[in-house]
Amino acid sequence: MIGYLKGKLIAKMPPALLLDVQGVGYELEAPMTTFYSLPALAEEVTLYTHLVVREDAHSLFGFATLADRQLFRTLIKVNGVGPKLALTILSGQTAAEFQRCIQQNDSQALVRLPGVGKKTAERLIIELRDRLADAPDIAVDSANLAVPSGTTVVTPANPKQDAISALCALGYKPMDASRMVQSIDLQDKSCEDIIRLALQGALR
After folding, report:
1. Helix orientation angle between 174-182 and 191-202, rounded to the nearest 10 degrees
2. Per residue in 35-69, pLDDT tens?
């Protein structure tokens, strides 16, 4: 089992990213709460990981904190919640915000997340109310590190379109994702900034 990876951040294409670990490129998927804390491209980052093995694919997921990884692992044990939906939940809420929704039986906040209907929200509250415990929030250390010769850094060419694609990957319909982005002042904003503002607007 791969517990964590430490390497150079080569590409950010939410919800996917590419990490160079001593010359080996690892493709991971990560929630937006992790993307918000990522350093600039070509810098070093440590991500806690979880490997999901299926007959048709091996998918590696990365998290900025142990708390987020623990919540992800807890979520995918709930009947009807797979890795994609768990990633969506963690993208829309922090671990602390999600736990507060569970403890306060706030199903209305949960159903605002794409893919979470009323029944799923109720199931999450029932199954996790007693099991969900506080998890320590471990800060991720990152340091500046030059990109070695021959390594290509991928820079998003269109933050707006990349943000729409990321929202679709998180479960929003294309028309809804476009509408969420249209209301945002896009000037000088990164893809991550646009996604953050779009999710904040959708969850109000």
Report:
1. 100
2. 989 999 999 999 999 999 888 888 999 999 998 99
